[in-house]
Write a structure and sequence with these properties.
Pfam families: ABC_tran. This protein is of the alpha/beta class and about 260 residues long. The chain contains 11 helices and 10 strands. A hairpin with a 2-residue loop joins strand 9 and strand 10.
Length: about 260
């Protein structure tokens, strides 16, 4: 398995655990969704896999493995080599992660050169090409733009492009569409699906929207108050779930089709 959580429990400041006995395995090329309301523990789960738990967050039990090796034992240098190249993360609002007083291009160049010793012009071109891959045809103009000059959807595409510039094997996506309008949401979801098709990328998706999970994911975990209350493949969750909480989430989605195998 590419990524494995083994009975992971996480708490902040010795409080009630935010994640309890969490287990999950993700295979190469698989899309898995963690679905639940705010406070369910889903964001804590993916931040732990990136070594990005906020201050006070501690894994008190269990282990997280990437390619069979524990992520909990990595040094700072090993994390630097892993993040960006092998696994990367998309945040809920990528615009908030961008420096408002620097151009998109300068931020791309800095990010790329932090991971690979390439000339500035080559790093610039790598960023520009990835922007085009994310459906932003005026890539040269965007590279010279500041974040405030871009729409929310464009900033989110920039965030995904930056996360994917090294074509990592695993993409962790934390509510990547929740701050966007419905049309842009649909476009971002489709572009993320294309990443798997084009690069074989595995995706661990966090969302409160079971409709998005149903469209994208091969396997779905439903979470509530730090616990996994339901799990199964898409068909099982949508058609045969016996969990009252899952049925509540399903009822909150006005209309949703189940995509067939592609």
């Amino acid at each position: 398995m590419m990524l494995s959580y083994r009975d992971v429990t996480i708490a902040y400041h010795d409080a009630t655990p935010s994640l309890v006995d969490f287990s999950l395995e993700i295979k190469s090329g698989e899309i898995v969704a963690l679905v639940g309301e705010s406070g369910s523990g889903k964001t804590t789960a993916i931040r732990a896999a990136m070594g990005l738990l906020p201050g006070g967050g501690e894994i008190s039990k269990g282990d997280i493995l990437f390619d069979g090796s524990s992520l909990l034992q990595l040094s700072a240098g090993q994390w630097q080599a892993l993040r960006g190249r092998q696994m990367s993360m998309i945040f809920q609002d990528s615009g908030a992660m961008l420096n408002p007083i620097r151009t998109i291009g300068s931020q791309f160049v800095e990010y790329i050169r932090a991971h690979e010793a390439v000339p500035k012009q080559e790093a610039w071109e790598m960023g520009r090409v990835m922007l085009e891959r994310m459906g932003l045809p005026h890539s040269q103009t965007i590279m010279k733009s500041y974040p405030f000059q871009l729409s929310g959807g464009m900033r989110q595409r920039v965030g995904i492009a930056m996360a994917m510039v090294f074509q990592p094997r695993l993409l962790l996506a934390d509510e990547p569409t929740s701050a966007l309008d419905v049309t842009t949401q649909s476009q971002i979801v489709q572009q993320m699906m294309d990443l798997r098709k084009d690069y074989g990328t595995s995706i661990l998706l966090v969302t409160h929207n079971l409709g998005v999970a149903a469209y994208m994911a091969d396997y779905i975990l439903v979470m509530c108050n730090g616990l996994t209350v339901d799990r199964g493949d898409r068909e099982t969750i949508l058609r045969h779930s016996k969990s009252p909480y899952t049925r509540e989430l399903l009822a909150a989605v006005p209309a949703m089709g189940v995509k067939g195998d592609e």
